[in-house]
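Re-run with default settings, no changes from the original entry. Doing this only to confirm the output is reproducible before filing.
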Amino acid sequence: MKFVLFACLAAVALARPQEENLVEVTFDDRVHEEDGTFNVQVELSDGSAQTAVGSVGAEGQVNMEGSYRFYDADGNVYEVRYIANEFGFQAQGDHLPVAPPAPAHVAELLRIAEEQRAAGITFERK
């Protein structure tokens, strides 16, 4: 019985978070206004950070612009810059995939479609 109790205590002691894994907030500055605007800056002891600025959009929504930074297990840094507004969430970062360019004929098709719209030509959808 004493061995089982000792084994349980040892398991609990080994499962506790190790000091080197703890991350602390080193900087935290937040301003929130009643109209929905805000400004947030947070930095952690592991180098991770987030900034965000919120402003009221043309349609009454709150638009956001900011960035966040984090490190992977190998120490590589990843940073994402973003805008979130009436057009959706738009992220940019060197590590994010980029869509390939449209084929050359697409520009010509778009030009033709614009000419048809300008001429009043419409098509029925079925």
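Confidence is low (pLDDT under 50) at residues 1-5. DSSP finds two helices and six strands in the chain.
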